[in-house]
Amino acid sequence: MATIRICNVEGCQRKHYGHGLCQMHYNATPAHRAAQARYNATPACKAARARYNATPARKAAQARYNATPARKAARARYYTEAKEREQGLSSATTAPHWGKGRTGGYRGARREAQP
Predict the structure, then answer these.
(1) Domain containing 74: what range?
(2) 16 within domain boundaries
(3) Residue at 65 is within a domain
């Protein structure tokens, strides 16, 4: 009977994906993120993304998401902070970090400005 490998990161019990890591930790490696960024910049990727975003199902899903109270609150918060930054009223010097992937903030989590 074959044994199932697990992630080498301490405390992580997810199934092995590659290079000793689970898919989440593998995707967070600098080498993978750099390769993904290079691919995302290609014309083929941009065209595929545009085709996907133009589908009726995607537009309907985006409309449903934009109608949620959490999204409306996040949008209002973002534009309020942007306006304060323009007027010099806010101590924050950078826009909120919306994050990509599950490292360093995700789904609206913000990193606070470092003094």
Answers:
(1) 23-87
(2) no
(3) yes
96 assigned to some structural domain: no
pLDDT digit string (tens) for 67-81? 999 999 999 998 888
Rg (CA), the chain: 19
> 98: how many CB neighbours lie within 10 A of its CB?
14
Q: State pTM to two decimals.
A: 0.49
What is the chain written as a DSSP string? Answer: -PPPPB-SSTT--PBP-BTTB-HHHHHTSHHHHHHHHHHHTSHHHHHHHHHHHTSHHHHHHHHHHHTSHHHHHHHHHHHHHHHHHHHT--S--S-----STTSS--TT--PPPP-
Number of domains comprising the chain: 1
Query: Which residue type is seen at 81?
Result: E
Q: Is residue 70 part of a domain?
A: yes
Q: Do 110 and 97 meet the contact criterion of CB atoms below 8 Å apart?
A: yes
26 compared with 98, residue with greater pLDDT: 26
Backbone angles phi and psi of 106, in degrees to 5: -155, 145
